[in-house]
Amino acid sequence: MRLAVLKERRADEARVAATPETVRKLIALGNTVAVESGAGTASGIPDAAYAEAGAEVSPDAASALSGAGIVLKVRAPLAEGEEGPDELALIPRGALVIATMGADKDSVARMAAAGVDAAAMELLPRTTRAQSMDVLSSQANLAGYRAVIEGAAAFDKAFPMLMTAAGTIPAANVLVMGAGVAGLQAIATARRLGGRVSATDVRPAAKEEIKSLGASFVGYEDEESKAAQTSGGYAKAMSPEFLAKQAEVVAGAIAKMDIVVCTALVQGRRAPILVTKAMVASMKPGSVIVDIASDAGGNCALTKPGERVVTENGVIILGWRNWPARIPAAASSLYARNLLTFLTTFWDKDSSKPALPAEDDLVRGVMLTRGGQVVHPNFAAG
């Protein structure tokens, strides 16, 4: 079967869906692999490395997709009207397209009309069986790391305590908001850099996880917070009353912070505002807010997605989009392995192609379209 790997063309996207390592393993499954020229350049992977791994390097998307039965991408295929080639129109009908789709009803309908079988990896159920193919976790982990590194670079004082003959520089006070995968990695990274770290999260299980990493817990707890987590491990949207009480507790902590890392996301919704204008105004000049949730609007009221902002009182707010793509080589490596694991899990050796049983919980979770029909319950009509 021919498997195509396309170059990503969306703004701020530097990742690629396959690496030379995964190309070799995809070929070992019985595939021929075509990689569009330049697909790995932004991740530090030249065309020659793919060719050495056994891939055909195709000059453009059309030639890579010609006859393809499987298409690997980081983001959804470009459609008519978007900047770049109409990738969706170039994909052969019946091909399996695997990517993080960020889909809505209109885009899912377009994929169904194009006759592609679309798998949205961000919708993978968060179960033990799915851990090794969980793209949200692998990418969030790196986003949490990168956020602290960029926060440290923007901070105009030292991160660890430095004792010198000229005097002592105190360690940076760091608050991590949200203790999911990204938040826990941010805590660990800030601790490794020598910061004094505290963290907050509405989920009851998070308190012990925060403490286990050597950080202190900041937060308001009541009966609502005991049920603040879905069965899939995500944070639930909380009531305005709870958020107001949580904000009171957090506001006192934020005024003392040098660096605040915002990581709180509610799946499928706008990110909750956790850092208000008043909280930002209470912070010291030179303090830094790093907002990983910027793609969903941001956790800080003053975040401008895609921009670096300096407030009137001198607080720096980093609201870059697509944080995993800011560490593209590592992010591509993990993402490519996630996709490889998904394919090998459902690979039929006899027919040398994926077998995706509709009754399987992982397949049911990710498949948006099949055989020209919308099959995912979140997007199906009715």
Automatic annotation (TrEMBL):
User: What's in the keyword line of the UniProt record?
Assistant: NAD, NADP, Nucleotide-binding, Oxidoreductase, Translocase
What are the residue boundaries of the Alanine dehydrogenase/pyridine nucleotide transhydrogenase NAD(H)-binding domain, all occurrences included?
152-319
Q: Name one GO molecular function term.
A: oxidoreductase activity
Ranges for domain Alanine dehydrogenase/pyridine nucleotide transhydrogenase N-terminal: 4-143
* Top-level division of the source organism's lineage: Bacteria
State the protein's purpose: The transhydrogenation between NADH and NADP is coupled to respiration and ATP hydrolysis and functions as a proton pump across the membrane.
**Record PANTHER family:** NAD(P) TRANSHYDROGENASE, PROTON-TRANSLOCATING NAD(P)(+) TRANSHYDROGENASE
> What's the name of the protein?
proton-translocating NAD(P)(+) transhydrogenase
| Source species of the chain | Roseomonas populi
Please spell out the taxonomic lineage of the organism that makes this protein: Bacteria, Pseudomonadati, Pseudomonadota, Alphaproteobacteria, Acetobacterales
